[in-house]
Amino acid sequence: MNIQPIHDDADLERTFARMEQLWAAEDGTPEADELEVLSILIEKYEDEHYPIAPSDPIEAIKFRMEQQGLTQRDLEPYIGSSGRVSEVLNRKRTLSLNMIRRLHEGLKIPYESLLAEPKADAHGTQPI
After folding, report:
1. Rounded to whole angstroms, how far apart are CA atoms 28 and 46?
2. Contact present, 118 and 126 (Cβ < 8 Å)
3. 3-state SS class at 15
4. Among positive and negative, which fits the CA dihedral 101, 103, 108, 113?
5. Which residue has the higher pLDDT, 127 or 58?
6. Predicted confidence (pLDDT) at residue 55 exceeds the cutoff of 80
7. Which residues contact 118 (CB under 8 A, 6 or more apart)?
C-alpha cells in the first residue's frame, strides 16, 4: 500500500484510477483497507476544493415534498395557511424562524438548507 496525499487534480485522477482497480476488494483484505483510506482522502480533497453549498430553501422544501408525495396542503402545519404556503413556494414570502424550526423538526429538512440564501426565481425575483 503506497498511499500519498492528494495535492492537485492530477493526484485526484490517479487516486480515482487506483480506486477503480480496488473496487471489488473483499472486506478485511489490505486492498479493502486501501480503498477505504483512498475514499477518505478523496472526500477530504473534494470538500476543500469543490465544496457544495447548501441547497436553496425552497428547492429543499420542494424536493422533500416530491420525496414524500406531499401536497401544498400538507405543508400548512409547518408554514401556515394555504395562502402563506403558496407565497413561500412562489418566493413571495421568506421563511420565518418558526417555519424553519417546524420544517426541520417535522420534515427533517436540514437547517443548513432552510437557512441558506434563497436563489432568485426564473424571473430574477427574490423573496421579500
Report:
1. 26
2. yes
3. helix
4. negative
5. 58
6. no
7. 56, 57, 58, 91, 94, 126, 127
Quote the pLDDT of residue 117. Answer: 83
- Which class for 67: exposed (0-12), middle (13-18), buried (19 or more C-beta within 10 A)? exposed
Q: Which three cell numbers stand for residue 63?
A: 424536493
pLDDT in tens, 73-125: 999 999 999 999 999 999 999 999 999 999 999 999 999 999 988 776 555 55
- Fold for 57-114, please state it: 434 Repressor (Amino-terminal Domain) (1.10.260)
What pLDDT sits at residue 114?
A: 94
For 53, the enclosing helix (H) or strand (E) is none
Query: Where in 9-124 does DSSP place strands (E)?
Result: none
For the chain, first and last CA: distance in Å? Answer: 56
